[in-house]
Amino acid sequence: MKDFVSAQEVAEKAGVSRSAVSRAFTPGASVSAKTRRRVMDAAEALGYHVNHLARGLMTNESGIVCLIVSELGTPFRSSLIRAITQQLQNSGKIAMLINTDRSDGSVDRALRQAIHYRADASIILSGLPDKSITQLCLRNGQRLVLINRDDDQPGPLRINIDDREAASRILTAFMRAGCQQLAFANSEVGTPSLMARERGFVAAAAALGIEVTVERHGSTGYEAGKVVAQRLLTRTKRPDAIFCANDLLACGVMDAARHQFKISVPDQLCIAGFDDIEQASWSSYELTTFAQPVETVAREAVAFLASPALQEDAGEVRSLKLHAELVWRGSIRGG
Amino acid sequence: MKDFVSAQEVAEKAGVSRSAVSRAFTPGASVSAKTRRRVMDAAEALGYHVNHLARGLMTNESGIVCLIVSELGTPFRSSLIRAITQQLQNSGKIAMLINTDRSDGSVDRALRQAIHYRADASIILSGLPDKSITQLCLRNGQRLVLINRDDDQPGPLRINIDDREAASRILTAFMRAGCQQLAFANSEVGTPSLMARERGFVAAAAALGIEVTVERHGSTGYEAGKVVAQRLLTRTKRPDAIFCANDLLACGVMDAARHQFKISVPDQLCIAGFDDIEQASWSSYELTTFAQPVETVAREAVAFLASPALQEDAGEVRSLKLHAELVWRGSIRGG
DNA sequence: TTGTACGCGTTATCAT
DNA sequence: ATGATAACGCGTACAA
Coiled-coil ranges per the record (chains A, B) (predicted)? Predict the structure, then answer.
């Protein structure tokens, strides 16, 4: 099996030195047009491609950014990954994808991989790394971005959605629709953002002297939504408004309500979700929900990676709180 | 900003030679337990991690596998990516993710990136690379896997689903349900697998002397399904059976039929899809569809990468044709 | 078993 | 503008 072509071979074929080849491929280096031309021709003929691994060895910049994520098959996650990889490519970086599960140390192992491959940065979409690992990454000059994670360690950039504010806004919408029995559908996962939505909703209701029935089950998916709906809709005081921690839960809740309990949405029951996944706009759901500013999240994350390293910024706490836009559809009365 | 820890530093701290450190991290190397212990302790204390980039420089194995894919936010694609990344990680490899679009040369650029990073292999889920690029990859010892692509170049492993056979199976199901007016819903994308389903369906029907109405529109998504349905269901001879090129189209078709045309599924109209995405099982759809053996695809792809390089295998044509399982739900009468 | 010396492909530095 | 040489961090043949 033939090896990759090296700059050495190109140099020989072009009749120049290795350094000339290197310069020809370095933007803004001082090479004569003639030399550059001869090098490029030879490179093309031989099928030469700069070895980024070796380059990274010298420059200490691999161009690699690690995406650490669990449940990557989920609509919201995959759309976020799409946006981020796209932005990364536009910035000349490349994404490494590492799948994590809920097991202990899964994220830590992923970050170790990031270090192994000398990733310039890691973007964590799921789970939370151990403090020691975070420090290890930062100490090695690796930038860190935490998306929708709740962590108070200094160093990483944290990008969050203002979940509490959104929760209080949806409460207002429910009240305006004349809802009386409020409920919140959640999973047992307990992710910070999911919990913030729950707490924000409960708190906002409490401020109005209203109690909220909270039900949690399983992971944050469609099936869990069905189970939660089953529990909520068989209660003696049946809810007429359910705020769901995310759209998948909401779809499950809505389907259970309609097909299993023959409850009309939004006439008898108002439902709201979170994320604005594609399915939320499908005719069968027409789900009123909050759109996370996916593109903005991706842009900010990548911009942070590209920004010049402020010296000794390890002490600074960078945090971004983004606004979720309420997308009004048909699952809440009025509007 | 501090640099990464090198084997040199570990060696000094442990009071051994640098090669001893290297050996301590090389499985099956000859190191005394005592030395290994001292090295490991020092490494742990310093936070040392082997530099895979430099290692790849020596061994000519980066451990990197490129995943080249478009429309990564789509349910089926993302589930496939999930399965593959999982399998790769289990094999000690790591995935690089490259997003492509439909523009010319997008896949070629992605493969060039794969070469830049000296990926051991590339798995192509979307588009089709130029023959010259394919040859370049193979010549450089990079393994290639084409999933659901139609390509007759020798060298790469091709994994396909038997679309034609599936299409003829679903025709049988339609006939058994007593359907008379057959239609096929497709996009204008013209991907080999999509076209194989269309042609297979049309051909199987023709063999029975039945004509199929084919309608194509836009990209292979939900909205396109709605448009296609609109066209099909306003025809004078309205179809009572629609086979859709994939589940997203099918969901769009079904929603349009029910909500827009007040047509009952499956009583007045039978619908089938392809892929068995999660949404197909949701109560609002209960879509009868074909499940692609995602796990098997991923396993076979990764197994091929891990298999020892047969000498001069460039001439051999490796091809896998997998069976799609018919998942029977409620969108076709009978069953 | 352990250490020395070299090479992997690249960029950076320093002459010229 | 160009070429020679060092250095990056690692694996390994070879010698001890």
Answer: none
Which one, of B293, B238, B241, lies nearest residue B272 by Cα?
B241
- For the segment B236-248, the average pLDDT, to the nearest whole number, is 98
Q: Confirm if B143 and B88 have CB atoms less than 8 A apart.
A: no
On whether the CB atoms of residues A145 and A304 are closer than 8 A, the answer is yes
Is the peptide bond preceding residue A266 cis, with omega within 30 degrees of 0?
yes
| The predicted structure's pLDDT at residue B308 | 66
As a three-state string, the secondary structure of chain A is CCCCCCHHHHHHHHCCCHHHHHHHCCCCCCCCHHHHHHHHHHHHHHCCCCCHHHHHHHHCCCCEEEEEEECCCCHHHHHHHHHHHHHHHHCCCEEEEEEECCCCCHHHHHHHHHHHCCCCEEEECCCCCCHHHHHHHHHCCCEEEEECCCCCCCCCEEEEECHHHHHHHHHHHHHHCCCCCEEEEECCCCCHHHHHHHHHHHHHHHHCCCCEEEEECCCCCHHHHHHHHHHHHCCCCCCCEEEECCHHHHHHHHHHHHHHCCCCCCCCCEEEEEECCHHHHCCCCCCEEEECCHHHHHHHHHHHHHCCCCCCHHHCCEEEEECCEEECCCCCCCC
Evaluate whether A7-50 and A163-292 have a shared fold.
no
The Cα–Cα gap between B112 and B130 comes to 11
Chain D bases closer than 7 angstroms to a protein Cβ: 1-5, 7-13
Question: Can you say how many angstroms the Cα of residue B22 is from the centroid of all Cα atoms in its chain?
Answer: 37
Interface check for A294 against chain B (CB to CB < 8 A): the answer is no
Q: Determine the distance in angstroms separating the CA of A308 from the nearest CA of chain B, rounded to an integer.
A: 12
Q: Give me the CATH code for the A62-161+294-323 domain, please.
A: 3.40.50.2300
Across all strands, nucleotide nearest B48 (CA–C1'): D9
The CATH architecture of the domain made up of A163-292 is 3-Layer(aba) Sandwich (3.40)
pLDDT digits (tens, 9 = 90+) for A52-107: 999 999 999 999 999 999 999 999 999 999 999 999 999 999 999 999 998 889 99
Sign of CA dihedral B294, B295, B298, B299: negative
Closest CA to A49 of A18, A27, A29, A25: A25
Instruction: Write the DSSP assignment of B76-87 as a string of letters.
Output: HHHHHHHHHHHH
Q: What is the spatial distance between Cα B275 and Cα B335, in angstroms, rounded to a whole number?
A: 19
Identity at B311, one-letter amino acid code = Q
How is domain B7-50 classified at the CATH fold level?
Answer: 434 Repressor (Amino-terminal Domain) (1.10.260)
DSSP B74: S
Residues of chain A predicted below pLDDT 50: 311-312
**Would you say the C-beta of B19 is within 7 Å of strand C?**
yes
